[in-house]
Amino acid sequence: MKMSFQIEYRAPFGQSMHLCVTYYNAEMHRRVHDLLMHTDDGNTWEVETSSMVLSHFPIAYVEYHYQVEDDHGKCIRKEWSGVPRVYAIDDSKNYIFQDQWRDLSLQHYLFRWTKRPLAYLKNIPFFDRSIVFRVSAPHIKSHLRVALLGSEGPLGAWNMKHPLPMHYIGDGDWMLSINAYAIRLPLEYKYVVVSDETHDVVEWEKGENRRTKVKRLEWGEQLVLHGGNLRTDCELVCHDDYFNKDNTITHEIRELYI
């Protein structure tokens, strides 16, 4: 089993990106590694790991985050990991993780900060070739859900009548795994919000279409896409003590960072 991690981050000269990864076995014993990533253009960082170094430690789950270190090994910036990047792993597969840097969002107050058991991740299926979509949307109302539409037939071919509903996995995160055997890459897609009752699309996320960078998946490869925040409008309520009233401001989620 191999795992490849990719993230885009423009680091100043003298700074480097590191992957801090924790491997868990079925008994939840863990091994922690700090891996230096490499870049050819100063923007796209990559690192590949192999389970051969853990041959006596069968991996059931992987949890990780990214951090920036200076040339003395001191951590000078760490991405937000309040809701950890964690996945169940099938050691007969190879994984490609394409990620975005996560800053602390202004919607962090919506999270309940509960410690979830990892066993629920085992319910996410893997195929001979899979694409796993994951996005954060804690602001979605209880009568709505997140779904997926894309350029290929299995993803609805942009037809608003055929969105693929995603599964809520807790802490504001939604996930979906699809069989990528009949999907042509690279792929364009967007997340949408649908009504639980009518299944109609009520809101598209804003901005450009999302795109995969991988152009081909080999047998056994699993492409994991962590899309960061769902790019839809969110209402922020601020209380005015002087007038004793609430003021509501609408923002796009992608702009809300501290």
TrEMBL record:
InterPro entries referenced in this protein's UniProt entry, alphabetically? Carb-bd-like_fold, CBM20, Ig-like_fold
**What does the record list as coiled-coil region(s)?**
none
Which Gene Ontology molecular function entries are recorded, alphabetically?
starch binding
> Which SUPFAM superfamilies does the record associate with it?
Starch-binding domain-like
The signal peptide annotation in the UniProt record is none
Superkingdom of the source species: Bacteria
Q: Which residues form the CBM20 domain?
A: 123-229
Designated name of the protein: CBM20 domain-containing protein
Species of the source: Hallella mizrahii
